[in-house]
Amino acid sequence: MKPRGFTYHQPKTLDEALGLLAASDDAAVLAGGQSLVPMMNARLASPEIVVDINRLASLDAVRIEGDRLVVGALVRHESLIGHPLVQERLPLLSSMAETIAHWPIRTRGTIGGSLVHADPAAQWPLAAVLLEAEIELQSQGNARRIDAADFFEGALSTTLAAGELLTAIRFRLPSAGHGAAFRLLTRRPGDYAIAMAACVVEADRPRRLAIGGVEPRPLDRSGALDGLTTVPEMIEAACREVTPMDDPRAPADYRRRVLAQLVGDCLAEALRGQAS
Amino acid sequence: MSEPRAVGRALPRTEDRRFLLGQGRYLDDITIPGALEVCFVRSPHAHAEIRAIDTAAARALPGVVAVITGADLAGEITTLRMAPAITGVRPTEIAPLPSDKVRFVGDPVACVIACDRYVAEDAAELVEVDYVPLPAIASMAGAAAEDAALVDATVPHNLVAEESFSAGDPEGAFRRAAQVVEARFVQHRQTHLPIETRGIACVFDPGREHLTVHTGNQAPHPLRTALAARLGLSESQITVISPDVGGGFGQKIALLREELVVAALARRLGRPVRWREDRLENLLASLHAREETVTVQAAVDGLGRLLGLRARIEADMGAYCFFPANYMMRVVGMILPGPYRLRDYAFDLRVHLTNKCPAGPMRAPMAITSWVMEGTMDAIARALDADPVEIRRRNLLEDADLPYVTATGERYHSISSRGTMEAALDGLDYVAFRAAQAERRDRGELVGLGICNVVESTTYGSAFYKAAGIPGSGHETATVKVEPSGACSVAVGLMTSGQGYETTLAQAAAEGLGVDPGAVRVLIGNTDIAPYGMGARGSRGAAAGGGAAYLAGRRLQEKVLAIAAHLLNRNSSDGLALEAGHVMQRAGGGLQPSGLTLADIARVAFLDPLGLPDGMEPGLHVTTSYDPPPMTYSNSTHLCAIAVDRVTGMVRIERYLAAHDSGTVINPLVVEGQLHGAIAMGLSGALFEELVYDDQGQMLSGSLADYLIATATELPAIELIEHARPDAMTPLGIKGMAEGGVMGSIGAVCNAVADALAPLGICIDSQPLTPARLSALIAAAKRA
Amino acid sequence: MTQHAITLDVDGERYELAVEARRLLSDVLRDLGRTGVHVGCEHGVCGACTVQVDGAPMRACLLFAVQLEGQAIRTVAALGDNGGLDGLQQAFHDVHGLQCGFCTPGLLMTLDALLRERAELDEATIREVVSGHLCRCTGYDNIVEAVQLALRRRAKAA
Ligand SMILES: Cc1cc2nc3c(=O)[nH]c(=O)nc-3n(C[C@H](O)[C@H](O)[C@H](O)COP(=O)(O)OP(=O)(O)OC[C@H]3O[C@@H](n4cnc5c(N)ncnc54)[C@H](O)[C@@H]3O)c2cc1C
Ligand code: FES
Ligand code: FES
């Protein structure tokens, strides 16, 4: 399990990185490498050019801009757990980050890499959809923002265009006093989830609920909750039009069964946690 | 005999230091300048004819030294003929590398030799093999089907072993029975998964015509014998050196094809060649294990006493027989009755070939037996609506029954199953547990207790092999030496892969010799240094290896004391003893130092032979072989308390207790560690591990993200209760242990889940107990 | 294949190397004699290859050596106390926290980093951290106990 050969670049500036990506149609961005390198070692991925973005310090920042928490693409899972801004304004992200893989993987893996990798059972795509995030993409001479809901296409597939780099994600900050919860089911802690649910409840906005690991991409089920008052009704509505995946990790009917429980627990906790 | 001093002490292990400092020397850590590295080209098909292999592009790649196929090796290596003289076993042959057809996904068809592994993998991708796919046999049912394709053209119906056994009068027992209870036990495919995968590094010296083989192997001498035979060399032309071994569990015993090919290549090329299996290869194509199904019918009387038992045993051998096809299943049949009184017993066994990775023995190859027998006890209890413990009490062999010869001729003389069961139940507080369980059940919780009594056959003596019709010997040999300075060593042909032999064999030899364990250096894992040994298999290390080391030490002590008596002008060595390297003499009520030390004696023995008693040979060394009794047994009782989540089907282990009789224990720390590890392996296998093949024979568990093993968060804290009864037949009363934990934990956890789900009318007859399966069963039960 | 000239800081020593970009850090460290960096899966799961990079535990099998110019890499060879065992290693020894020893260096690197960050840890947290490493021999009980023992001894000495 050794990778095929490739040409390696370690750009020091964003422009340089974008230039390198523009110049090749077989270039891969190397962020934390916690998804890309296993695939390269197994020779399931073999880019001709590897653009290592780990020296782009500008992508490694967390800040608040208005009602948005802006997280740079290169921010590691581990550093989100204890980040003061996250703890204060959006502790949900911290509790989600804690459940990703294991410590020696979290210290390296990045939020940008996770979003672009787009594993159906990954935590960050779910958070992005739940928190109506915008995703910032840049390519040589071009920059765009796209809603998370439009970014994820399917399992391991996004609308990222050739030559584009994900530079940041902008989560919408729920209002002070919001309630939030996250639940996932894994065989062992640190495994990719069989199913997961996350929820945010605010005084002045409709409730938000998203589920992951069940369909090939994270699903925003907030709409299903409109007008409902009891948790059992909400569970029923949220799970109704879901078509769970059937794979060796879990059969579809199993996902459906556990999803209801996860959604229920999540809603209950978020409602409890709201402005107490 | 004086009280043991070296044996029985919980000494932290000697070998730890180098491992903790990162200075272990595992295979990859052995530097061999100029060594080439290989990569095997493996079949993507489960079953296919090989039409042609084109290696030209691979050979042209810079850095590639050679590309070899089966045809190239034909004259250099003999095929492996597995043809034991046992009725019911079909002879089979295995070529070094297949050249006519491939039989499973991962079957090696060519071998690239290059300057390093990176380049070797590049070149392996360039080897073009023209395959014509054939229908694949992916299950035992498929193998037995009427018109099934043949995995091996010489094995009709894919049935490679078939055999029947009967003792007493099973028919009569079933006629007399008040009730016949039936049960089925389906165990799934697993693999050993040592964290260090397999590997080998070979150096051939053309001048001396000598092959030096470095390979992490549990049985270096038998491996050398096999290599010599296959390569046409004499055993004395080969040195097998086993470096530190990062776990074996049975995967590192037999000579498999990759190791053989690498050895041949080193000779052919006249250059050092090495191979280290990667994890994908290890999961796909090393050795698999445990895919077995046992169906039983138990004839019982009105009190649930077992009158007779019929068992049907089936196993999936995979694509090739690297072991006699009936070997493991015959042992399963022989030891199945475990600690229970049973006279009228019959079994038949069938072993099938399939287009899957070959199977081999894995730590506790007979593990299924305890699940089967204990699951049968529970089935009897359920059929009679009786307490499962009570049913066991009615059937267990008691002390008064010993010695007891089982229906298959096994002789128990020192087991204490009733004792370990009662000790375990006390440790748990069985009555209180059942009361709490009833309350929790009323609240809707799914709570269960699994009980598993284990009789572990630890140490196979030569007489066992002979009786079982399996070629092999159970003896072990040790050489204990004292050097002129007084430095001591013991050399044994066993090899450790984590069991702590460097500590325990020193303790055993020191016990015999009369020195401090820290003064004895253990020399293992080198066929030139250690006397021929049968290797570390089963749990034979302690009784066979420890027994031989102890006996050799004791004999050498006799010589030391004879010299001492001479030097002290005594008529005989009566009243002399060697303690911690000092010659002691009886004086008054106790032993007093004589002033002589082992070093003094050694000096005379080596450097002043004329000072020795008349006719005595100079030097201080003894080599002794020890052939243990036909079979030595340890026993244990495992209790596992679990709760199952109604929705997710997740099993949470709430308590795990094992009461064990491991006889005289050489080192309690090591024994405890072996129990922990074995219990963990059984639980992990029953709850998590599963090698999945689809119906085309494609393997779907090719990474550690698919093949899950239990980690620190899933495994319980393990409570151990010692209930030791020294063995009546072995030196020091050692029984050995290392596999019983696997047997006990599989049975205990499966029975616990069965107990938890029984109120829902669910019958647990197969593993693994995955959440998805359990959840589906619970959901279906609710609907019904 | 192009060779990259890099400078690596390993266990406080500087190495000037020429390496192919694709060479994994685990392999390069082993070539530098750090054979305590064990390779068990090369896909990030087993943890045997874990080293510290600027103090944080990371899988060496998922890093390319070329990426790490200027960063401080620590392997098991840097642990220990003047050639003897340090507190954590000693605790592993005393409670039989290792058998074949193959998983041990990786575990030590993660746990050493953990003990540097935290003075107190409950059993659940220790189990959680240990769960990022596979050990096929010990059943983990004694590994957990070793961490607890090391913590207790350290607290007493302080
Ligand atoms: C054992 C193990 C367990 C894991 N368990 C989990 C888990 O439970 N949950 C979970 O969510 N993840 C899990 N992961 C994956 C981990 O979170 C990865 O870190 C993450 O999926 C990818 O992030 P990365 O920074 O490592 O990206 P990389 O591996 O570097 O890249 C992943 C992909 O994204 C592309 N890419 C990366 N960054 C950018 C960018 N900024 N712009 C454009 N393209 C980019 C790469 O080209 C590549 O295609 C696990 C990984 C391992 C090894
Ligand atoms: S070898 Fe790196 S995690 Fe297994
Ligand atoms: S001690 Fe062998 S793998 Fe952990």
Structural summary, described in words:
The complex is a heterotrimer of chains A (276), B (784) and C (158). Chain A has 276 residues and is an alpha+beta fold. Chain A contains eleven helices and 14 strands. In chain A, 32% of the residues lie in helices and 24% in strands. The termini of chain A are far apart. Chain B contains 21 helices and 32 strands. The relative contact order of chain B is 0.13. Chain C is of the alpha+beta class. Chain C has a five-stranded mixed beta sheet, with helices on both faces. The longest helix of chain C has 17 residues, at 141-157. Chains in contact: A-B, A-C, B-C. The structure holds flavin-adenine dinucleotide and FE2/S2 (inorganic) cluster (2 copies).
Give me some keywords for this one.
heterotrimer, A: 276 residues, alpha+beta, Uridine Diphospho-n-acetylenolpyruvylglucosamine Reductase, domain 2, Uridine Diphospho-n-acetylenolpyruvylglucosamine Reductase, domain 3, Enolase-like, domain 1, 3 domains, 5-stranded antiparallel sheet, 4-stranded antiparallel sheet, 11 helices, 14 strands, globular, B: 784 residues, Aldehyde Oxidoreductase, domain 4, Aldehyde Oxidoreductase, domain 3, 7-stranded mixed sheet, 5-stranded mixed sheet, 21 helices, binds flavin-adenine dinucleotide, binds FE2/S2 (inorganic) cluster
